[in-house]
C-alpha cells in the first residue's frame, strides 16, 4: 500500500512539473502525463476528479466595501475627530448652538466625501466577466459546448477564429493559428502559433506553443489541452497580483494626515497651557471650559475638509473637459506631485495604426506619404512624385503585397478613412495599394486566387497562387532574409536580373538600416508558373523591401518636452522589441542622448533582489521592452522606494496590478479593457499622452491652489488661537466668542478659500519642478508665512479690541474685534498671490471668484450685525459710522503690510 502511495506521489510531482513549464514538453508528453487521449477527452468521473485536484476555473472574489464601510471611513480623519470632540464638549457644557453648528460642518463634509467615494473599486468583478462565456471541449469523444467555469485541467479545448480562450492550454493542433495576446503581453501584433516544444525559460510573449485565458483567436483554428484553470492561469496570477498590490497612497492624503496630527497636538498643548494658567490664576471653571472650547474651534480650520473636497471635485470636472476622467478625488492633487510617468507605446505614444512608409527597390528608395487609415498618399523618390502604375518594379511589389493578403478593406465615403478586417500589417499593405489605386477586389477579378500557402514559422513566408491569363502568378511576402534566400533573381525597373551575392548583401544592409529606423520590414517577391504544383519558394524574383511604421502621434513630442521641462521623467514600457521601442523613443524625445539605458523586462527584478548598481541602472533607464505584468509591478515598487510619485499608463488586463499600485493609475478609455479602467485612478477618453500632460498641469494648479487656501485658512485660524491665548494670559475678556469664531470659519473664511481653490493658476506652472512627495502640505517656509500673517492679524485685532475696551460695552467691543478680524481676513486673501508676482496683475486679482467671494462674505458679515435674531445669537451690535471707519481702517493694515512683504520675497519662495 505504501509503495502504491509513493508511486502516486511521484506521478503527481511529474505532472505538476510539466504543468509549470508545459512549453518545454511536446504535446504528446503533456497528454501522456495527464493520461488523456486527445481524440476522446475526459470522462465525467475524470472531470470531477481533476476539478477536485486542480481547482475550478474561477477567480477568488474580492469583498466589496459596503456603503456603511465607506461612510465610516469618512470619520477616519483627525480633523473630523477634533470637530466631533469639540461638538460633544460644546453640547455637554451647555453651548448647544456651538455644538449644533459644528455638527452641521461635519455632516456637510462627510456627505461630500461619502458621495464622491461611493463607487468602490470593482476590478475583480471585471476580471470575472472574462469567465462568463461558453467554450467548446471534447469529452467522451464528442465536442460539447459548456460554461467556461466548468473547464478543468486535462480538457481538450476546440477553438477557431473569433473565440476567446477560457483557460491556459498547450497546443495539440494549429491550422494557420494566430492569437491576439495584447491584453496579456502588450504585443501589438497577433502571434503566430506552432506546436514545437521550446527550450529554457521562455518569456510569455514568445511561448508560441501555448494559448492563454483571456486572449482571442484572430485567425485559423486549433485544439489544446488545458494545463491551468482559474487562479493557476496567467490571468489568475494577475488577479492575485491585483489583490496583493496595495493602492498607492497619494501625497495629499499623507500631507493632510500630517497636518491634522500637528493641529491635534497643537490644540492639546494650548488647551493644557491655558487650563493650567487659568487654574493657577483662580479663574472660574466654566470660563476655562468656554475658553478651551473656543481654542479647540479656533485651532481647527472647519472649512478645510469641505474646501479641499470641492477643490478636488472641480478639478475632476475640469479634467473631464480635457478627456481625463478621474475616479478618485485625491488622485487629482497627486498628479501635481507626479515626477515619473510610465507610459506604454502602442496607441499612447503611437497611432496604433501600421503604415507603409518606405519601399526599398533595387536601385532606389521610395517614400510614401499619409498615415494611419487614411487612403490618400503619394509616392516619392527624393522630392519627385512618381506614379506607381508606370513603374514596373514598384507596381509589381504593390500588386504582390495586395494579392498575398488575407485582410479586407472597406472604402470610406470620401476615400479618407477606411475600415479593415484582418491583421493591421496586412491592412497597411492594402492601404498602400489604395494609395496607388490598386484595389484587392479589382485585382481578384482578373487574378482569381487558386491556392494559398499560409504563413509558416519555419519558412517565415506566405504565398498565394493567382490566375493570370493562362498562367499562375505566385505572390510572396515574409521575412526579408527568408524571401531573399528563396530568390534567384531581382527586378530592376522592368528588367529581370540575376540576384548575385553582392546585390543580396545590399538588400540585407538596407534591411538592417530600416530596422534601426524602427520599421517592421517585409520582403516581397513573385514568379510566374504554369502549375499550382510548383514549389512557391524557389527561384523567386525579388521585388524589394517594405518598411512599416506605427507612427508616433504628432502632438506627443511636444507633450513629452512639456513634461521634461516640468521636471517629469517619461519612461516607456512596452511589450515590443527593443529596436522598435528605441526608435519611437528617439522620435518622440524620450531618449535625448546616445548611450541612455534601454533594458528588457527581465532586468526588472524584485527591489529586494537588486544590487545597488542594478537599481541605479534601472533608475537611469528610459525604455523597457518585453515587460511582463510582475515586472511592471516591480518597476513601480522600485520607483516608489526612491520616494517618487509614479503615474502608470496601461490598457490591458496585464497592466491592472501596476495601475492599482502606482500613485496614479492611468487607463486607456478607447482600447483599454474594463479591468484596466476599474483598477485605474484616471481614464483617458482619447488614449492620448498629451491628455496626461494636461492632467498633470491641472493637478499642479490644484496642488498649488490647495497650498494657497491651506495657508490662508491656517493663518486665519492661528490668528484666532493667538487672540484667545493672549487674552486668557492677560486675564482679559475674550475678544471673540466661540460662536463668532465658528461663524468666521465656516461662513466668511470658506468663500475666499473656495475662490483660491478654483483659481486658474499661473501660466508658468509647468516651468517649476514637481513638489517633493515627502514635503508636507505646509513646509517650513509656509509655516513662517502662516506665523507671520497670523501674528499680523492678531496684533491688529487686539489693538482694535484694547482701543475700544475702555467704553465698557463688552458687546460693542466684541463686535469691533469680530468685524476687524472678519474684514482683515477678507483683505488677507490678496496676500496669497505668488511671492514676486505683479502687485496688480496676478492669479488672485485676476480670479473673478475672489471678487465674488469678497462680496458674498461682506454681506454675510453684515447679517449678524443688522439682523436682530442672528445678532442676539452671535452677540454683536451696530458699530455706527465711526466704528465702521475704525474697523475698515484697521482691517486694511494687514493687507498693506502683507503686499509689501510679498513683493520683496523671492519668486515661489513662500506660496
Give an overview of the whole structure.
The chain folds into 4 domains: 2-60 and 130-244, Calcium-transporting ATPase, cytoplasmic transduction domain A (Distorted Sandwich); 72-114 and 249-323 and 695-903, Calcium-transporting ATPase, transmembrane domain, CATH 1.20.1110.10; 337-350 and 553-687, HAD superfamily/HAD-like (Rossmann fold, 3-Layer(aba) Sandwich); 355-549, Calcium-transporting ATPase, cytoplasmic domain N (3-Layer(aba) Sandwich), CATH 3.40.1110.10. It is built from 32 helices and 28 strands. The strands form 4 sheets. Strands 10, 11, 12, 13, 16, 17, 18, 19, 20, 21 and 22 form an 11-stranded mixed beta sheet that branches. The longest helix is centred in the C-terminal third of the chain and has 41 residues, at 689-729. The relative contact order is 0.09.
Amino acid at each position: 500500500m505504501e509503495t502504491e502511495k509513493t508511486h502516486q506521489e511521484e506521478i503527481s510531482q511529474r505532472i505538476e512539473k510539466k504543468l509549470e513549464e508545459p512549453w518545454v514538453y511536446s504535446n504528446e508528453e503533456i497528454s501522456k502525463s495527464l493520461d488523456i487521449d486527445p481524440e476522446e477527452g475526459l470522462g465525467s468521473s475524470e472531470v470531477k476528479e481533476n476539478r477536485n485536484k486542480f481547482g475550478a476555473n474561477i477567480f477568488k472574489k474580492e469583498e466589496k466595501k459596503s456603503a456603511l464601510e465607506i461612510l465610516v471611513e469618512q470619520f477616519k480623519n483627525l480633523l473630523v475627530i477634533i470637530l466631533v470632540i469639540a461638538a460633544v464638549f460644546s453640547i455637554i457644557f451647555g453651548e448647544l448652538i456651538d455644538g449644533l453648528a459644528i455638527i452641521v460642518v461635519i455632516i456637510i463634509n462627510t456627505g461630500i466625501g461619502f458621495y464622491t467615494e461611493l463607487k468602490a473599486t470593482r476590478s475583480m468583478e471585471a476580471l470575472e466577466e472574462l469567465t462568463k462565456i461558453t467554450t467548446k471541449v471534447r469529452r467522451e469523444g464528442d465536442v460539447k459546448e459548456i460554461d467556461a467555469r466548468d473547464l478543468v485541467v486535462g480538457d481538450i479545448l476546440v477553438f477557431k477564429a473569433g473565440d476567446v480562450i477560457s483557460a491556459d492550454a498547450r497546443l495539440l493542433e494549429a491550422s494557420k493559428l494566430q492569437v491576439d495576446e495584447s491584453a496579456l503581453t502588450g504585443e501589438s501584433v497577433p502571434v503566430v502559433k506552432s506546436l514545437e516544444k521550446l527550450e529554457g525559460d521562455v518569456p510569455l510573449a514568445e511561448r508560441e506553443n501555448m494559448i492563454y485565458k483571456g486572449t482571442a483567436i484572430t485567425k485559423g483554428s486549433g485544439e489544446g489541452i488545458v494545463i491551468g484553470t482559474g487562479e493557476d492561469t496567467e490571468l489568475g496570477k494577475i488577479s492575485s497580483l491585483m489583490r496583493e498590490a496595495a493602492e498607492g497612497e497619494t501625497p495629499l492624503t499623507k500631507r493632510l494626515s500630517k497636518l491634522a496630527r500637528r493641529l491635534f497636538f497643537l490644540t492639546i498643548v494650548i488647551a493644557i497651557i491655558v487650563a493650567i494658567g487659568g487654574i493657577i490664576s483662580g479663574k472660574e471653571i466654566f470660563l476655562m471650559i468656554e475658553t478651551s472650547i473656543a481654542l479647540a474651534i479656533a485651532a481647527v480650520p472647519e472649512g478645510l475638509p469641505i474646501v479641499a473636497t470641492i477643490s478636488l471635485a472641480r478639478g475632476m470636472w475640469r479634467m473631464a473637459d480635457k478627456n481625463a476622467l478621474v475616479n478618485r478625488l485625491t488622485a487629482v492633487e497627486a498628479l501635481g506631485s507626479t515626477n515619473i510617468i510610465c507610459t506604454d507605446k502602442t496607441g499612447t505614444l503611437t497611432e496604433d495604426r501600421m503604415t507603409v512608409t518606405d519601399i526599398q527597390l533595387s536601385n532606389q528608395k521610395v517614400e510614401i506619404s499619409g498615415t494611419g487609415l487614411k487612403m490618400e498618399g503619394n509616392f516619392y523618390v527624393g522630392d519627385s512624385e512618381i506614379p506607381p502604375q508606370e513603374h514596373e518594379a514598384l507596381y509589381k511589389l504593390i500588386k504582390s503585397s495586395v494579392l498575398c493578403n488575407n485582410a479586407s478593406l472597406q472604402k470610406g465615403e470620401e476615400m479618407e478613412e477606411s475600415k479593415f478586417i484582418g491583421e493591421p500589417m496586412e491592412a497597411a499593405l492594402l492601404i498602400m495599394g489604395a494609395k496607388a489605386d490598386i484595389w484587392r477586389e479589382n485585382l481578384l477579378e482578373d487574378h482569381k486566387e487558386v491556392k494559398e500557402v499560409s504563413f509558416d514559422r519555419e519558412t517565415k513566408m506566405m504565398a498565394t497562387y493567382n490566375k493570370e491569363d493562362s498562367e499562375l502568378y505566385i505572390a510572396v511576402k515574409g521575412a526579408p532574409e527568408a524571401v531573399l534566400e528563396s530568390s534567384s533573381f531581382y527586378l530592376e525597373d522592368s528588367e529581370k536580373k540575376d540576384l548575385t551575392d553582392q546585390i543580396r548583401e545590399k538588400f540585407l544592409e538596407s534591411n538592417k538600416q530600416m530596422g534601426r529606423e524602427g520599421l517592421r520590414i517585409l520582403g516581397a517577391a513573385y514568379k510566374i508558373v504554369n502549375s499550382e504544383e510548383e514549389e512557391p519558394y524557389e527561384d523567386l524574383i525579388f521585388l524589394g523591401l517594405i518598411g512599416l511604421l506605427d507612427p508616433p502621434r504628432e502632438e506627443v513630442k511636444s507633450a513629452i518636452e512639456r513634461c521634461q521641462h516640468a521636471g517629469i521623467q517619461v519612461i516607456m514600457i512596452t511589450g515590443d522589441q527593443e529596436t522598435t521601442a528605441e526608435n519611437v523613443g528617439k522620435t518622440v524625445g524620450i531618449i535625448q542622448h546616445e548611450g541612455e539605458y534601454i533594458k528588457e523586462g527581465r532586468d526588472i527584478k524584485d527591489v529586494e533582489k537588486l544590487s545597488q548598481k542594478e537599481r541605479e541602472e534601472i533608475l537611469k533607464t528610459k525604455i523597457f521592452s518585453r515587460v511582463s505584468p510582475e515586472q511592471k509591478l516591480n518597476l513601480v515598487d522600485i520607483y516608489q522606494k526612491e520616494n517618487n510619485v509614479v503615474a502608470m499608463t496601461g490598457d490591458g488586463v496585464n497592466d491592472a496590478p501596476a495601475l492599482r499600485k502606482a500613485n496614479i493609475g492611468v487607463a486607456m478609455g478607447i482600447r483599454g479593457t474594463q479591468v484596466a479602467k476599474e483598477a485605474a485612478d484616471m481614464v483617458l477618453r482619447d488614449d492620448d499622452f498629451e491628455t496626461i500632460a494636461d492632467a498633470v498641469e491641472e493637478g499642479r494648479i490644484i496642488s498649488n491652489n490647495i497650498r494657497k487656501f491651506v495657508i490662508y485658512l491656517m493663518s486665519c485660524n492661528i490668528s484666532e488661537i493667538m487672540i484667545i491665548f493672549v487674552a486668557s494670559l492677560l486675564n482679559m475678556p475674550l475678544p471673540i466668542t466661540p460662536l463668532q469664531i465658528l461663524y468666521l470659519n465656516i461662513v466668511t473664511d470658506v468663500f475666499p478659500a473656495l475662490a483660491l481653490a478654483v483659481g486658474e493658476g499661473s501660466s508658468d506652472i509647468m516651468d517649476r519642478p514637481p513638489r517633493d512627495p515627502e514635503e508636507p502640505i505646509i513646509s517650513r517656509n509656509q509655516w513662517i508665512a502662516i506665523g507671520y500673517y497670523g501674528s499680523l492679524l492678531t496684533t491688529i485685532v487686539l489693538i482694535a479690541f484694547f482701543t475700544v475696551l475702555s467704553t465698557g460695552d463688552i458687546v460693542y467691543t466684541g463686535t469691533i474685534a469680530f468685524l476687524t478680524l472678519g474684514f482683515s481676513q477678507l483683505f488677507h486673501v490678496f496676500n496669497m498671490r505668488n511671492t514676486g508676482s505683479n502687485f496688480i496683475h496676478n492669479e488672485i486679482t485676476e480670479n473673478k471668484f475672489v471678487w465674488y467671494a469678497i462680496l458674498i462674505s461682506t454681506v454675510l458679515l453684515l447679517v449678524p450685525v443688522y439682523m436682530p435674531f442672528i445678532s442676539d445669537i452671535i452677540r454683536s451690535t451696530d458699530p455706527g459710522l465711526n466704528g465702521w471707519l475704525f474697523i475698515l481702517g484697521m482691517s486694511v493694515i494687514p493687507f498693506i503690510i502683507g503686499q509689501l512683504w510679498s513683493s520683496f520675497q523671492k519668486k515661489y519662495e513662500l506660496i
